[in-house]
Amino acid sequence: MTASCLTSLAFAADTTTSLRGIDVVAPDQAPEVKTYAGRRPGTETPVARTFSTQPPVIPHAVENFDEINLDGNQCMDCHSGATYQKKKAPKIGDSHFIDRQGNKLTEASASRYNCVQCHVPQVDAPPLVDNTFKGDAARKSVRKN
């Protein structure tokens, strides 16, 4: 019995750390607030996708955009089928006009209304863990050479 208690104490003294090297029982520190990369819409080059099914990322700042809610979605001011040509913006994908049952819709599906659920604005931040992922774009450029 005494041996098992001593063994338990030895394991309790060993601290477990996260991938970031932080003690997992320590309270999380709030991350530093970063500003979004890019400037106003229409002034940035689209960011290349790293794999074929990746949703496009948002290449412009979004700080002054209204929240996406039931009353409105400011993204659609530029990216809807009715406005994208005039605004010279990418049109929302055809997949956004298909409901969960596979039916084609005339307007974007309500399940695709929250744009930032898949399309994310970019910040200049170091990765949380080392990553050597190159994606499809890197493989294509290697094949061409």
Question: How would you sum up this structure in a few lines?
Answer:
The chain has helices spanning 2-13, 76-79, 84-87, 135-144. It has 145 residues and is mainly alpha-helical.
Low-confidence stretches: none
The shape, in one word, is elongated
Number of helices: 4
SSE pattern, N- to C-terminal: HHHH
* Distance, first to last CA: 67 Å
| Helix-strand category | mainly alpha
Largest sheet: none
Strand content: under 5%
Number of strands: 0
Mean pLDDT: 81
Radius of gyration: 23 Å
**What percent of residues adopt helix (DSSP H or I)?**
10-25%
Task: Give a description of the structure.
The structure is a single chain. This protein is mainly alpha-helical and 145 residues long. It contains 4 helices and no strands. It is elongated, with a radius of gyration of 23 Å. The model has no long low-confidence stretch (mean pLDDT 81).
